[in-house]
Amino acid sequence: MTEMTVDKQQPASAGATNTRVVVVTQGGPNPEILVNALRHHFSDLIVIEELPESKGQMLRQKARRLGWSVAVGQIATMAVSKFGKPFVRKRAQAIIEEFRVNTRPDPSLRRFKIDNANGPEFERHIAELKPAVVFLVSCRLLKRSTLEAIPCPVLNFHAGINPAYRGQQGGYWSRVMRDEENFGATVHLVDAGVDTGDVLYQVRVTPSKRDTMHTYPLLLTAAGTGIAVRAVGAALSGEVYPQEMTSMKSRQWYHPTIWTWVWNGISHGIW
């Protein structure tokens, strides 16, 4: 595992005595890995958990953006990925043990459940909790108006190397593109774009031959606990130094359609 060095530039935020960290997520085993890792280092941590979008909402949004045929193909792949997880349980457990991570929710943490992170309820929680850092992991894209209502640094964990593999399934696409040296994860500042904020830290790992699209997100999340902790610590201390990423072409990716996924699996052995 190799972490990129951080360019020492002027800090992007000032120091503060407030050390409260608010994690925003839709929940699940992978996000809980980061919640637990952050909790281990930052005692004043609170979770805001929003409801996931329904499959119908997701399908309509994808159709508006990419067309109905692509949207249906992507939803089919997501379904296969979900139902295929029991078949890779042994590999998933091996990843959990190798990186010594915990996927179980911590019952001692304060948690607030909301419908939508872009709604007024979320803004009320932020105003009342007064966090020093907001950390996003597996939640919906925050609107510009929502970001403007958050008076502290907002960080995001992305299972892909930005800016080359923004969006969805960054690990999978790096393998499809024969770019496994950029199989990794990123923590970045959040702006109104899709993973377009300034990069803070990145980690790169080598996937096992047993890894597939079912385990890539888990592997990258488990490998990314260190950069998550470093990024939050840097934000709390006012020492946020964005990296220069001008040499890397920026591209947004989406879930593969079911026919693309099957083709890459059969022809290239990348599942």
Describe the structure.
Residues 1-16 have low confidence and may be disordered. This protein has a single domain (13-268), classed as Rossmann fold, CATH 3.40.50. The strands form 2 sheets. An 8-stranded mixed beta sheet has the order 1-9-8-6-5-2-3-4, sandwiched between helices. Strands 7-10 form a two-stranded parallel ribbon. Helices cover 39% and strands 16% of the residues. By secondary structure, the chain is an alpha/beta fold. The chain has helices at 29-41, 55-66, 68-84, 89-99, 120-129, 144-148, 170-176, 216-223, 225-237, 258-268, and strands spanning 2-3, 21-25, 45-50, 110-114, 133-137, 154-158, 166-167, 184-189, 199-204, 252-253. The chain contains 10 helices and 10 strands. The relative contact order is 0.20.
The first-level CATH class is given as Alpha Beta
Main sheet: strands, sense, barrel: 8 strands, mixed
Q: Runs with pLDDT <50, length 5+?
A: 1-16
Query: Whole-number radius of gyration?
Result: 18 Å
- Beta strand %: 15-25%
Describe the strand arrangement of the main beta sheet, using strand numbers: 1-9-8-6-5-2-3-4
Bulk shape: globular
Distance between the termini: 22 Å
Can you count the beta strands? Answer: 10
Element order: H for helix, E for strand: EEHEHHHEHEHEEHEEHHEH
The helical percent reads 25-40%
Named CATH topology:
Rossmann fold
Based on secondary structure, the structural category is alpha/beta
* Count of domain modules: 1
What is the architecture at the second tier of CATH? 3-Layer(aba) Sandwich
Mean pLDDT over all positions:
92
